[in-house]
Amino acid sequence: MNRPAVTLSVLALLSAGWSAGCSGHAESAGQTTSTASPSSTGSSTAAAKPAGHIGDTLTLTRADGSTIAVTLEEIINPATVTPGPGDPGVTYIATKLKIADPGTVVIDGDVNINVSLSASDGSTHVPDLKNVSECKNFDSGMFRLNPGESATGCVVFALPHGVSPTKVKYLPSSGFAEDFGEWTLSNH
């Protein structure tokens, strides 16, 4: 048998088994730096939802069928990195998010894996993992919520000077869910 094919098959099975075993609570199954898109099953795909705007709450379905409510509360542009001045070659942008558990089961996850930012130059950015003085970070991106609870924090991005944010995207379950939410940013 072809050794690379066997290795890839084993890794895929292990990854799928690990993800399935964690889907009861864990929203994060591993960090990726590429933007995931909703997957399709057979001929059905996730229904396209209208894009939200700053202040809108989007209720999304996670990979395990539970729900998460995500509100883009504010865009802080520019944001001030703390401690220290940060990289002088970029502008730091903070997306202030409120994550809520509207369901009946405990949910947890990592917003730094689930959020991406699109920019005016057509690029997509992953979080920069910096802290800013304008708002608190989640617990290094992590959250754990009981039903009815919520947490608010910032996810920070670094954009080249002259490039502005155009869209924020939230992918539940690290992109393993078919659902996703987007907020279109105007005047940014």
UniProtKB/TrEMBL annotation:
UniProt-annotated stretches for the region Disordered: 24-51
Compositionally skewed regions (Low complexity) per UniProt: 28-48
Record keywords, A-Z: Signal
PROSITE patterns assigned to the protein according to its UniProt record, in alphabetical order: PROKAR_LIPOPROTEIN (PS51257)
Signal peptide, first to last residue: 1-20
Xref: InterPro entries: Immunoprotect_excell_Ig-like (IPR029050)
Protein name listed in UniProt: DUF4352 domain-containing protein
Organism: [Mycobacterium] crassicus
